[in-house]
Amino acid sequence: MSAAIGIFGGTFDPPHLGHLILAAEAFDQLGLRRLLWVLTPLPPHKQDQAITPLEHRLVMTQLMLGDYPHFELSRAEIDRPGPHYMLDTVNIIRAQNPGADLVLLIGGDSLRDLPAWHRPADLAAACQYLGVMRRPDDAFDLTSLEKIIPGLGQKVKYVDAPRLEIASRDIRRRIAEGHAFRHYLLPPVYDYIQEHGLYRQG
């Protein structure tokens, strides 16, 4: 899979060391040539949640990727109106990279919920593989999922990464409640959050 391009989507609110470690393990284990971080302005499943303005998340993600030459920020969702469905994003990235194998990186929880995604069978067919990064409490039954999305099992490749219990929502909570959070972030991202007073109550 030396020509493969990984697609790693998220709101990255904020991007943290857990994201970075999972992405690095996927890049290495799946033999990717590049890994695109797809920053989502407003994912369809989070429309009822408060999300930090895109301009802040964009800068934080760029700061996160600064020292990693094989990691790139993708504007596939930033530069088009929503709703942003991953199938459309994959097709845009395919058009931008003709001939490349595309590997969609998702968590085990997303694999479990895949039948509820927009046109999940077409999404699986559009990808060479689904790189599944296991997380705590992400139990799923691949046999049952394959009954809904035929051939899914052949598409799944597991990424053996540390099961890190780091989540952006927990970091936001820690900041809002005045708890320590610096150790979850790269220094430039921490500095940016401090400089702009992000995630503070009030």
Walkthrough of the structure:
The chain has a single domain, classed as HUPs (Rossmann fold), CATH 3.40.50. It is globular and about 45 Å long. The protein is 39% helix and 15% strand. Strand 1, helix 1 and strand 2 (34-39) form a beta-alpha-beta unit. It contains nine helices and six strands, in the order βαβαβαβααβααβαα.
Q: What's the total helix number?
A: 9
What's the overall geometry?
globular
- Please give the domain count: 1
Q: Helical amount among residues, as a percent range?
A: 25-40%
Q: Would you identify the CATH H-level superfamily?
A: HUPs
Q: Cα-atom Rg, whole angstroms?
A: 17 Å
Helix/sheet category: alpha/beta
Strand content: 15-25%
- The end-to-end span amounts to 48 Å
| Spatial strand arrangement across the major sheet | 3-2-1-4-5-6
Mean pLDDT score, rounded?
91
List the uncertain runs: none
Set out the fold topology:
Elements (H helix, E strand, L loop, with lengths): L4 E6 L6 H13 L4 E6 L14 H12 L5 E4 L11 H11 L5 E6 H6 L6 H7 L2 E5 L8 H7 L3 H4 E4 L8 H9 L10 H10 L6
Helix pairs in contact: 2-9, 3-5
Question: Which properties best describe this structure?
Answer:
alpha/beta; 6-stranded parallel sheet
Quick description:
The chain is of the alpha/beta class and about 200 residues long. The protein has helices spanning about 15-30, 55-65, 85-95, 110-115, 120-125, 140-150, 150-155, 170-175, 185-195; strands at about 5-10, 35-40, 70-75, 100-105, 130-135, 155-160.
